[in-house]
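Comment thread on ticket #2218

A.B. wrote:
> Attaching the input chain for the structure job we discussed in standup.
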Amino acid sequence: MNYLLSFEKSLEPLYKELEERKKNLEATTDIEEKIQQELEKIYANLTAYQIAQIARHPDRPNTTDYINTLFEDFIELHGDRKTGDDPSIIAGLGSFNGTTVTVIGSRKGNTLKEMILCNRGMIKPEGFRKIARIVNLASTTFKSPIITFIDTPGAFVSRNSEKKGQIEAVSEPILALFKAKVPVIAVIIGEGVSLGALSMSIANKIIMLKYSFFSVISPEGGASILYNNKKKTEELASSLKFTAADLLNTGVIDKIVNEPTGGAHRNKEEVIKTTGDVIHGELETLLKENEKQLKTNRIEKYRKIGIYAD
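C.D. wrote:
> Ran it. Output below, let me know if you need it in another format.
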């Protein structure tokens, strides 16, 4: 493994031994079994914050990986037609199991240069307007189902973003998705934080990978704001109830995609294929609904979320 998380350090000597044996062309079956046993032990009782760390793993499959594997003839679309293009959002058209779909997703970048260009997935006003523009195209011109892939730490907060109308820009994709005349499926593949995640998660069906999270705020940000103490991060993470299991239990999401013990980065191909199968099943069901049903069901889904008191 190139990168072990803080709570996986007990695996380090085992991986070193595995590499040594491979170099010396020695048998590795027993050490591989020990690694798997240790992984199962670690992953049997994960905390919410540990799940957040897995969701942020740098080797985790990203939106580009899903697009390259699941969609044929993908054509990327650029710009918001107002102020520019935001590389933190990738959007376009592609063929999914024979159906033309519109794909919109977060993009963090793989290399250091790409990460800087994509602002590590933090969305600028032109990114939010880009999402809205592509949603409207899908709904009215392409008449194609929309699939979003969410993996973002949120909106990019800066003086320049405020000058460009950040708050107004955030509202545009949310409104566009509520009005969409086509099926919308949102897939949370990593971290889904704040308005950045909300801008792509107004959907008929929300799918989450097992070790992803979906939250109103990052646990670090919440600890800093509420307690002015980052040492409270792990405690707050548990209180936020942002894991896939928590959100399925409360009805916020509709389905969980399983991941191998150790996370999606340990078997990218399997996880991407499984996710594609789940998307296909949900899309087949949604394509049977008419425009009115899709819009009504989407609105009702969000009206049912939460507890209201007079």
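A.B. wrote:
> Thanks. Noting for the ticket: DSSP finds 14 helices and eight strands in the chain.
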